[in-house]
Amino acid sequence: MLKRDITFFALLTIQIIFLIGCEPTPAKEPEAAGVATLSDASQSESANVRGEDWPVFLGNQNYGLSQETGLLKSWPQQGPRLVWDRAIGTGYSAPSVRGNRLVIHHRIDDVEIVECLDAGSAKVLWKYESPSSFADPYGYNNGPRCTPLLTKDRCYTFGAQGRLLCLELTTGEKIWERETGKEFNIPRAFFGVGATPILEGNRLIVFVGGQPNSGVVAFDAGTGKTLWESVGKKTWDGVETGWSEPKKYKWSGEEMLVSYSSPVAATIHGKRHILCLVRQGLVSVDPETGAENFKYWFRARLHDSVNAARPVVIGDTILLSAAYRTGAALLKVSSDGKSVKEVWRDRRNLMTHWSTATPVGKFVYGFSGRHENEAAMKCMKVATGEVIWQTSGWDGSIEHLTPVSKSTVKNSKTGKVEAWPYYGRGSSIYAEGNLIVLGERGTLALVKANPESFQEISRFKPVRMEYPCWAAPVLSRGKLFLRCDNALVCYDIKASSTK
Predict the structure, then answer these.
(1) Which of 178, 208, 316, 407 is least surrounded by Cβ atoms within 10 Å, i.e. has the fewest?
(2) Cis omega (within 30 of 0) for bond into 246
């Protein structure tokens, strides 16, 4: 177990306060070279390359699990081959990739932009622009938070003010649009809209967050028509909280129903569930009708708090985790799918702020801690909640390291500028036995998915990646895509690539 050096963090904090106070201005027109035609896209180096798409939030396996093979087992000191890098507008949403098309949702000035790029060259294929006046009340950036959802011919996005868009994937032409922020009764949320929709059959499942019972809404994916509304007063009014006071929750009609945890669809005991971790807790609804199967109160006592990590389904159990002293819980679903039983609950073992823990076998690897200076990467045994190991990401002296930016330090022994030593509240995805970890200050690391001990294989500082790096990495056809507040980069991590 590694122990963080408090003195070093105090030194970093002094220097970072100044640096963070000088936030970069919003990116102007991105640096890509012109607009590519669709025939240009077919010539991309990413076209016809075998591998898997990453068309939805956290990939096809829901939790950042990649099935790609033939990847580098370690990285060169300077990092793998950089394919391209480009400036983009502000936002926290990760890119999505289908075939040779990459879609990123970002904001420049007062415009939210859905932009489709050639994944191999970053040439612009199309753009769709919409006005946005969203201002984050806590001073974070004002861009979109949700990841695009791509099908064979459609692109769905959910903007920071609740604009739900369906576009043609090949052309960017609008098919339909819903202004959920205007159409539903939605109390003001902490950080705008932040839960990425999912597609279940022909139903687009969206955390609208509307009162009194429109926390979760299903829209017809083809037309945008409302199919059903569920979750709200009928779910939580009078529910047992487990708190000393109030023991039973009394619905006021002014509650936030908003969630920053994206829904997940799962089949458990042969029954299909849409699992929704909203502000008050977990609800399972039927994807066809929106009828509730079960619920579980899971909320911090602190008002200024959110649930942001996705529920993790492992067999017939569901792992929940949140910061703000909420902790984690493992629930077992009954054979009829109508109730859950608490297997264990611990308010200290895993407190994920926003990045969903990565399940590998009988263990999960996740980031715990509300604040950066208390954050740790942990390996936890699912069945018991036991933390096997934890790390700050750095095991060694820091006396020779001096901060030179928000995301780098200078090594006095070598004279070189290096990656930030600590991961902070990072994100990870799993591929071929390893975890690809993106620290919140831009450090990229390759870590062995080993439940016995923490083993970092490689690390480097990717170009352009600066604090905050709060979107999880994306892996498709051997290409690793990384996004920070104002930049998007692509690295080639295939073992056969020229180094």
Answers:
(1) 316
(2) yes
Other CB atoms within a 10 A radius of the CB of residue 499 amount to: 10
pLDDT tens digits, one per residue of 46-102: 445 678 999 999 999 999 999 999 999 999 999 999 999 999 999 999 999 999 999
Burial of 200 (0-12, 13-18, 19+ CB in 10 A): middle
Angle at 204 between CA 200 and CA 207, to 5 degrees: 110
- Chain segment 103-144, per-residue pLDDT in tens: 999 999 999 999 999 999 999 999 999 999 999 999 999 999
Distance CA 13, CA 38 (A): 48
d(CA 264, CA 445): 27
C-alpha pair distances (Å), 271 with each of 70, 123, 283, 285, 380:
36, 43, 15, 11, 28
pTM here? Answer: 0.91
CB within 8 Å of 197: residues ≥ 6 apart: 146, 149, 156, 158, 164, 204, 205, 206, 207, 262, 263
Burial of 201-226, coded b for 16+ CB within 10 Å and e otherwise, reads eebbbbbbbbbebbbbbbbebeebeb
Please report, for residues 64, 75, 400, 417, the alpha-carbon distance to residue 413 in angstroms, rounded to integers and kept in the order given.
Answer: 37, 22, 6, 11
> Position 99: which residue type?
G
CB atoms within 10 A of CB 433: 11
